[in-house]
Amino acid sequence: MPEGASSHRFDGESDAAAEVARLRSRLAEAEREAAAANERQLELVRVGIALTGERDLERLLQLILSTARELVGADAGSLFLIEERNGSSLLRFVLAQNDSVPATMVTTTMPMDTSSLAGYVATTGEVVTVADARFLADDVPYRFNRSFDLAIGYHTRSVLAAPIATRTDQVIGVLQLINRKAERGGRILSEEAADRLVRPFAEPEAAVIRALAAQAAVAIENTRLVREIEELFEGFVRAAVVTIEQRDPSTSGHSLRVAHYTTTLARAVEEVAAGPYRGLAFSRDEMTQLRYAALLHDFGKVGVREAVLTKARKLESDRLAVVQERFRHAGRAREVAMLRQLLLELQRLGRAPTHDDLAHLEAALGEVRADLGASLAAVLTANEPTVLEEGTRRAVEELQRVSIVGEDGSDVPLVRPEEARALLVPRGSLDDLERQEMESHVVRSYEFLLTIPWPKRFARVPVLAYAHHEKLNGRGYPNRLVAADIPPEVRMITIADIYDALTTGDRPYRRASAPERALAVLADETRDGFLDAELVRVFTEARVWARPPAAAAPE
C-alpha cells in the first residue's frame, strides 16, 4: 500500500473518532439539559403544590421569592405587589431577600409607570432580563435605581424581572431576581466578586420564572380570597357580638372575654407536659374555630325576651308594685274593719269613745301593721335572686292562704298563686318557664349557626357553641351529655363562661365576685363533677384568669 494512502486512512479514522466523540458529548449535554429541564418541571410541580397549600400571605410571599431564587440561582431578589389607592394603582415593595448582605425591609411605593424596571414590567406585562444594570441601553425607558445598592453596600449586575399575572392577564405584582451566581455559595461583597461570580439570566431561567410567576399569581389570588372570606366571617362575628350585647348591656364584653379566656386556656394546655391533655395542640384553623364558637356561644339570647334576659328579681317591678298595693289595701281594709267594729260597739253601749278605747284601737292597728310589714318583708326577701331560706319559704307559702276583701266584696288572695310560684324559686330570678326560655338560647344558637355556610375547617363551630352548658356528670343542658361526649374545646368554653359570668360586672340579679371567690366556685363545681378538673387546674395555675383581654375587640 502506498505510504500516502495509509496516512489518508488514518486521518479519516481520526476524524470519524473525533466526530463520534463530539456527537457523544452533544448527546450527553442534551441528556443533561433534558434531565435538568425535567427536574425543573418536577420542581415547579412541587412548588405549585406548596404554594397552593399556603394560606398565610406573608409566608406565601416569602416562599415565592425564596423558591424563585433557588430555581435560577439568584443571590438576591425582591417582590412587589400592585395596590389600589384613591382610584389609582401603586406598586408596593413588600419583600426583599439577599444571601450576601442583610436585606433591609422598608415598605415603599412607586408609581405604576415605566420609569423603573419593576414599574415597566408591571405596566407592560413583559419579562425583562438585564445583563448588567450599570449599562442599560439608551432606548429603554427605565433606569436602574442604585440607591438600594448604596444603602446596603451591594453590587447589582444581572436582573430578571417577571410579571405576576392572573389567568386573565391582570398583573398583580412583579418578581425581581438579582445576580445569577456561578457558585451557589458565593457572596457578592465587592465589585470584584460581582464581576467574577455573576452570570446573566438566559432564556431557560426566564422560562422557569414565567411558569413560577403564573403559579404564584394563582396562589396569591387564592390567599387573598381566603383572607377576604375570613374578614367576612370576622365582620359577621363582630356584628353578632354587638347584637348580643345590645340586648343585655350588663353583660357587655362577655362574649369577647370568654373567647379570650378560652383561647388563652387552649394555648396553656398545649404547654402541659403530663396528664390527660399532654400532646394536645391546636392548628391555626382549629384555634380560630374555637374562638368563633366562644364568641358566638350566647348568640341565641337574641331570641329570648328582654324581660327574661335582664330580669333582676323574681317579680318584675310592675308585678311587685301590684303585690305591694295589695298589702296596703289589706292594711286599710283591716283598719276600716276594726273602726267599724269599734263604732258598732260604741253604738250598742250608747257612749262616746274613751281614751282607753282609742289606745286599744291603736295597739291593735299596730299589730296589724307589724304583721303585714313582716309578711311584706318576707315577700321582698324572697324576691331577691339569692338562695331561698327555709323560714322565708314557709312565710310565702302561708301567705297563699291569706285573703282580703276585694272592691267587689269577693275574696282576693294576698299573694296570687303565680306570684307565689315565682317567689318560691329556690335560687335565681327565673321561674321554671322563664328558665326554660333562657336555657333555650343554646338551641337557638345552634340552629342559627347551622344556617351559616361555614368552611370545612370551621365546620364544628355550631357543635362547640351548642354544648357549653353541658356538665361532665350529665346534669347540664340541653342534651344531658356525659363526659365522654363533651370534647376538650367545649370544656374550656364552659370554664371561661362561668368564670367571666362570676367576676365581670354587676348583673341585675347578682353582684360580681372577686377572682378568688370565682376560682373557689370553679373548684367546687369540679368536686361536684360538673367541670374538668385538669382544665380547671391549668386555668388556675397558669393564671389564665389573671390575663384579661387588653381591649374589648375580637382577636
Low-confidence stretches: none
Q: In sequence order, what are the helices and strands, one letter per element?
A: HHEEEHEHEEHEHHHHHHHEEHHHHHHH
For the report, how would you describe the main beta sheet?
7 strands, antiparallel
Q: Radius of gyration over alpha carbons?
A: 41 Å
CATH overall fold name of the largest domain: Beta-Lactamase
CATH class of the largest domain: Alpha Beta
Topology:
Blueprint (H helix, E strand, L loop, with lengths): L2 H51 L3 H16 L1 E12 L2 E11 L9 E4 L5 H8 L3 E3 L16 H6 L6 E7 L5 E11 L9 H7 E2 L3 H45 L6 H17 L13 H12 L10 H4 L7 H33 L5 H28 L7 H10 L3 E3 L5 E3 L3 H7 L8 H8 L1 H10 L10 H6 L21 H16 L11 H13 L5 H9 L14
Antiparallel strand pairs: 1-2, 1-6, 2-3, 4-5, 5-6, 6-7, 8-9
Describe the 3D structure.
The chain has helices spanning 3-53, 57-72, 117-124, 147-152, 191-197, 203-247, 254-270, 284-295, 306-309, 317-349, 355-382, 390-399, 417-423, 432-439, 441-450, 461-466, 488-503, 515-527, 533-541; strands at 74-85, 88-98, 108-111, 128-130, 159-165, 171-181, 198-199, 403-405, 411-413. The chain has 555 residues and is α+β, with helices and mostly antiparallel strands. It folds into four domains: 1-53; 56-225, Beta-Lactamase (2-Layer Sandwich); 248-308 and 438-546, Hypothetical protein af1432 (Orthogonal Bundle); 317-428. Strands 1, 2, 3, 4, 5, 6 and 7 form a seven-stranded antiparallel sheet that branches. The chain has a two-stranded antiparallel ribbon with strand order 8-9. α7 crosses α17. It starts with a helix and ends in a 14-residue tail after the last helix. The model has no long low-confidence stretch (mean pLDDT 86).
